[in-house]
């Protein structure tokens, strides 16, 4: 596998460092309860690596949802509690600010080898405005000496936590970002053939750049989901578009049908690499999650296939299946739908560009 051309946590001396780390804890919440801890668990390998290599303290920053100013239902406090349960024996604290005296005091009080989660970055306009003084206030309050970028899902954005902070501290990739970049780049640059790309979802305009990105590389492109149901066509024999659908009583096409599913599986049976982005039906209704479930289980039961699952709905759907059946295996369940698409289609990625070069 091609190694990332940027520095990672493996390339720097971590001993006694106070580390500021950008994570992606943008998790689904219902009534203050976390309904999927997938993204929290995805950060654990980097956290454990840092702790195992002698860092002094870890200060975590993240966003959650799209709050309009400070809205308590978007507080990261429940995430801190969840993280504490996943890291027994590690002090995990929370402070409801991102800078200022309260943060300074919380950092000072944090024991050696402890983790402090700061409040939702998007409570503050400086995050999305990429304000340098906002970034400076975070760095000054935490006394960090190293910035670890491990929030893959936001790397396509020029925010304070992907851009401005990198102007103030040495910046390296965490293990999650390293793995996502390496795996996606490998599939783009040197995939093992046959390469099959499965595309679903609802919006043609969102997925056509992905079709274009893989058109010359893929051996087969399979199109399902609402895109196919709404009549997408492509005359190239490399592209197969679902032809039959399961419908509701009103005639709405809500899942691809058995004939198309057989064609999907037939192509996947010979694949050495599969990239899947976009569910094949209306998965929130169990009656129309059949084709997505069949495909996910087929891929997961064939660990010899290099499999990339990307897109928020698709990754979440597959992760829920893994919870039910831990024996399912995928090479990468990406934590970033839009970021993965941006990387695949060679768009500008400020969060990657700002990592220190090797």
Give an overview in words:
- It is a single chain.
- The protein has 358 residues and is an alpha/beta fold.
- It folds into two domains: 9-176, Rossmann fold; 191-344, Rossmann fold, CATH 3.40.50.1260.
- It has 14 helices and 16 strands.
- The chain has helices at 38-42, 44-52, 77-86, 101-109, 125-128, 132-142, 175-189, 204-214, 225-229, 258-269, 290-300, 312-324, 337-344, 350-353; strands at 18-22, 29-30, 33-34, 57-61, 92-94, 114-117, 146-149, 171-173, 195-199, 220-223, 239-241, 245-247, 253-256, 273-277, 306-310, 332-333.
- A six-stranded parallel sheet has the order 5-6-4-1-7-8. The protein has a six-stranded parallel sheet with strand order 11-10-9-14-15-16, with helices on both faces.
- Strand 9 (195-199), helix 8 (204-214) and strand 10 form a beta-alpha-beta unit.
- Helix 10 runs parallel beside helix 11 (290-300).
- The protein starts with 17 loop residues before the first strand and ends in a 5-residue tail after the last helix.
- The model has no long low-confidence stretch (mean pLDDT 94).
